[in-house]
Specification:
The chain contains twelve helices and ten strands. The protein is α/β, with parallel strands linked by helices and about 270 residues long. It binds ligand LLZGTKA7. Pathway: Pyrimidine metabolism; UMP biosynthesis via de novo pathway; UMP from orotate: step 2/2.
Length: about 270
Amino acid sequence: MTLQFLIEQIKQKKSYLCVGLDTSIEKIPKHLQSNPAAVFEFNKQIIDATKDLCVAYKINTAFYESNGIKGWEAMEKTVNYIPSTHFRIADAKRGDIGNTSSQYAKAFFDVLNFDAITVAPYMGFDSVQPFLEYENKFTIVLGLTSNKGSEDFQQLKTGDNFLYETVLKKVSGWGTKENLMFVVGATKATELESIRKIIPGNFLLIPGVGAQGGSLEDVSKYGMNKDCGLLVNASRAIIYAGTGENFAEEARIIAQQYQTEMMNYL
Ligand SMILES: O=c1ccn([C@@H]2O[C@H](COP(=O)(O)O)[C@@H](O)[C@H]2O)c(=O)[nH]1
C-alpha cells in the first residue's frame, strides 16, 4: 500500500483507527472455542463488524506464534481476509543482523502479505535496512513505547537528549515518510509535541488507548500532522468488548465510539 492511499482512506472514512487483533483462544467467546478454526472465525467476525470504521488492523504475532503451526495458519488466513483497502500491520518487533532481518522481511512482506512490520532499532542500521528495501511496504520502528519499562533505556538521558530522541533522529534519516513510521505509546501523549519536532512528517502507530488508559484526545492534539499522521490502535478494548454470541456487535459499538471521536479531531 502507498502512503497516499492510506491518507485517502483516512479522509474517506474520517477514521485513523487501527483495530488490534490480539486474539487469544482463552479469551474468545465460549461458543467459538470448540471450532477448529476458532481464532480465524473470531477475527473474521471482528473484521466484518469493524471494517467500515477503521483503516488498519494490527496483528500482534505473539498471540499466533504461541499456538505453533495452528497459530501461523490462523495469522495467514486472517491477513488474507483483511480487505486490501486496509493497512495490515504485523506487530512482530523484529530486527537482527542484516541477513537474518532479510529473512524476517521476506516472511512478513512476501510470504505473509503484510503492509508493515514493527521493528526494534537497537541493533542499528543493518538490522533495519532489509525491511526498508521493500517498495510500498512500511517499517514501523519502536520510538517511545507505552510500557513502564520504556524508562529503563528509552527515557535515559544521553547528553542533551533522551535515548529515544536520538533513535528517532538517527532512524528518520534511514528512510522517508513513504516507507518509515514510528511507534509512540498513547501513554506518552505529552511527549508527542517534542517528538513531532524531530519527525514532523512520519506516520505514528499509537498503541495504548483503551486497556492501557491513554487518551485519544491528547494523542490527536499533540501528535497529528497535516496528513493526520496517526494510526491509533486499540486491541482488548475493542475485540473483547463482549463475551457472548453478540461479541462482534459489541466490538463494533466501541470501534464506532472511537471513530466518532476521531471525526472531531480530523
Ligand atoms: O509501545 C507499545 C508497542 C506495542 N504495543 C502493542 O499494542 C497492543 C496494545 O493492546 P491493548 O489491548 O490495546 O492495550 C498490543 O498488541 C501491544 O503488544 C503496545 O501496547 N505498546
